[in-house]
Amino acid sequence: xxxxxxxxxxxxxxxxxxxxxxxxxxxxxxxxxxxxxxxxxxxxxxxxxxxxxxxxxxxxxxxxxxxxxxxxxxxxxxxxxxxxxxxxxxxxxxxxxxxxxxxxxxxxxxxxxxxxxxxxxxxxxxxxxxxxxxxxxxxxxxxxxxxxxxxxxxxxxxxxxxxxxxxxxxxxxxxxxxxxxxxxxxxxxxxxxxxxxxxxxxxxxxxxxxxxxxxxxxxxxxxxxxxxxxxxxxxxxxxxxxxxxxxxxxxxxxxxxxxxxxxxxxxxxxxxxxxxxxxxxxxxxxxxxxxxxxxxxxxxxxxxxxxxxxxxxxxxxxxxxxxxxxxxxxxxxxxxxxxxxxxxxxxxxxxxxxxxxxxxxxxxxxxxxxxxxxxx
Length: 376
Ligand SMILES: [Zn+2]
What we know:
This protein has ten helices and 18 strands. Strands 1-2-6-3-7-16 form a six-stranded mixed sheet, with helices on both faces. Strands 4-5-18-17 form a four-stranded antiparallel sheet, covered by helices on one side. A four-stranded antiparallel sheet has the order 11-13-9-14, with helices on one face. The mean pLDDT is 96.
């Protein structure tokens, strides 16, 4: 192997980081993680700065070893889905070939890959100009961090997302776009027994919408809709005046998002229930990530590096989003899942596969060595 990971030191750092609660809504926790990396990147000789995205979220972090255009933008996120207090219930632990704890694989282990890669690049005097960007609010959709990530992506020739590889070891080069439909139904309240005819049921309209929206799903095109939240009404004896739904939408292409948006406009213009009006719209929060020619060239480099590092894997599509969706949508070649292997993210069983650490790190370094001077 070319790049050797000091696994014992790495695991000491990982334990330290996992044992810092850093839920997206816990800016102090995220800041503590940022502080660790800020010091470490500076010690490694990289220039590093905090980036305030101005939402009350913790700071983002940007570390570079050169000037734009960067050969690669390495992306990670410091926030987790686990609320403050999780660490005291179940701190970092190790059992055989696995490590556990909140954010152990999604994605504190990937963040450390970036740090150890930075050190290695400096120590070996490797060529190339790189930018490492750590987001503080990825788990809630990166709405405020998006312009910053997109600016860095425009300054970069490729984008490498250090989210974990799948439990199977596979990497990701295709992700669905993600959007939400929020619809509010305004009817007219009335006594359900005395004069129901004077009412207009917002809930009845909502029910029709849920069924119609489900009909827009298309398995072949990869389009899914899930009405995950509903609310409405004030009592069984009242014709409901107000109701609302929030629907998760996943699409492989923006054409599908347009098809859904068009149907929403039609239904808004002609509600099913007389006397009910509807405010509704589809907002896409992450564009789809599809492998274009540039990404395919980057995938080929990854395959070469994997071969050299003795890593076997396949490419995989997923319905989950990441910050790679933003960079890919700008036409920047993007691969995702370049962190270590693990699984059960966002659950109490989240784990990191320790055996994957040396070879996946070696593979990452092999990719970083190949990009400068390549055509990607
Ligand atoms: Zn993640």
